[in-house]
Design a protein that fits this description.
Elements (H helix, E strand, L loop, with lengths): L4 E4 L17 E4 L3 E4 L5 E4 L4 H7 L2 E2 L7 H18 L2
Parallel strand pairs: 1-2, 2-5
Antiparallel strand pairs: 3-4
C-alpha cells in the first residue's frame, strides 16, 4: 500500500486487489492466467484484479496486451544483438 510501482508476478489469477494499491500507483501486471468463464469457455486474466486495481491506480497494464508485446520486442532485439556480436 506504500509502493509507487507494483509489479504483479505471483502466478495466481487476480490475486492483487485494489485495496492493496496506493492511490495513483502504477500497476505492471506480468502474470497471464487462463480461467473458466461462468458461461463456459475460458478467458485470460492477470495476477492483478484489473477492475478493482484500475479504480485506485494511476496506470495499469492490461492482460492480454500489456507487457507481452514489450517482452517479444526485447527478445527480438537481444536476438539481433547476439547475432551481431557473435560473428
Amino acid at each position: 500500500r506504500r509502493a509507487d510501482i507494483v509489479i504483479a508476478a505471483v502466478g495466481r489469477p487476480e490475486m492483487v486487489v485494489g485495496d492493496w494499491i496506493k492511490p495513483g500507483a502504477t500497476v505492471i501486471d506480468v502474470g497471464i492466467n487462463r480461467i473458466n468463464k461462468p458461461e463456459g469457455g475460458t478467458r485470460l486474466v492477470g495476477d492483478a484484479d484489473f477492475a478493482s486495481c484500475s479504480e485506485v491506480s494511476g496506470a495499469i497494464t492490461p492482460v492480454p496486451g500489456g507487457v507481452g508485446p514489450m517482452t517479444i520486442a526485447m527478445l527480438l532485439k537481444n536476438t539481433l544483438l547476439s547475432k551481431t556480436f557473435n560473428k
